[in-house]
Amino acid sequence: MKTKGEIVFFAVCVAFFGFMGAQAVALMGEGRAGEIGSALWPLISLCAALGLSAVLLIQAVRRPAAAPVGGEASEPDARDEARRRRKAVFASTACFFLYLVAISFLGFILATLLFIPAFAIALGERRTKVLVAAPLILTTVMTAVFIKFLTIPFPKGVGVFAAFSRLFY
Predict the structure, then answer these.
(1) Burial class, 116, CB count within 10 angstroms (exposed 0-12 / middle 13-18 / buried 19+)
(2) Residue ranges per domain, the chain?
(3) Taking the model in full, what pTM does it have?
């Protein structure tokens, strides 16, 4: 359903990510030539966000306005869908904040292994293969890239969790 609010929101996102991307490009000249610096990953993230926001803006502009279908019959369905979406947003936000708290106690690796399936369940994923494979693959890739390749320090946790994390660092 095309709304003016969607178009305005996506246009603001494109403007924001475009501005921040330009600022990040200005920072790329800092440091030694050929070095992967701290500005690279934010720039990649901003470019991805800019591209995805632009795609959503184009889709919102091109999408025809939906005509009301069925009047009263579709209204309860729309309310149920809106309620389901609100629950998913609340649950995923709660998962994210719990992850932020847990990462300092459990460490990056273990907290991420627990966060990914919890977040997927909050968003409605129910396939067991996805809930098992996704955290293993994503945590392994993030650990390999950020901890081993780029040597970025992440929280290791406390107590026995710190000892577990040190096996991978």
Answers:
(1) buried
(2) 1-67, 72-169
(3) 0.57
